[in-house]
Amino acid sequence: MITLENNDLIIPFPEVHREAVARISFQRTLRIPDDGHDYPLPPGFGDFPLLHVEDYANRLPEKWRKRGGVFMPMYQSEALWMSFSSHGDYPIALQIAAGKINAVNGEPWQEDMQFDPQGYVVTTGQPWLDGFCIEKGRIRQFVAAPLGRGETVEEQLTGDAEFGGIQIKAWPLKP
Fold first, then answer.
1. Would the N or C end of the chain have less CB density within 10 A of its end CB?
2. Counting beta carbons within 10 angstroms of the beta carbon of residue 91, is it exposed (0 to 12), middle (13 to 18) or buried (19 or more)?
């Protein structure tokens, strides 16, 4: 069962191994201009708070209530990067998407693990993901954008604003 602990998303696999647990934190940072120039890594400002949708159901859109999960309050002037770890260095593969567009390879979301092109990160080999890879050595930050204005990755690639948000799928690997 996925849980929240100190603003971290905890994804355990007790049926596989007691150390097969992924921990994901969402780190607040500055939004850099999307103007084609290169910028140094912006400073970090700590964890974004993660909140259960069901705890705020009467104040959230119906679509959110149906989907469930967690959410984080985020200003459009902010960006985020994700930090990954696992207990005892047990490797967990993570597929990360925004608006059901895979952040690692830019392809549409698939339920199965994507190997070619690789569509996942492994917690023991990659401690963070700071955005979408748009080409070798270049990324676009994870930012908040309103659905329906053509600003999200999902809308730019599919022309539709159906999903939004961040999607994560995890698989325990062999240590």
1. N
2. middle
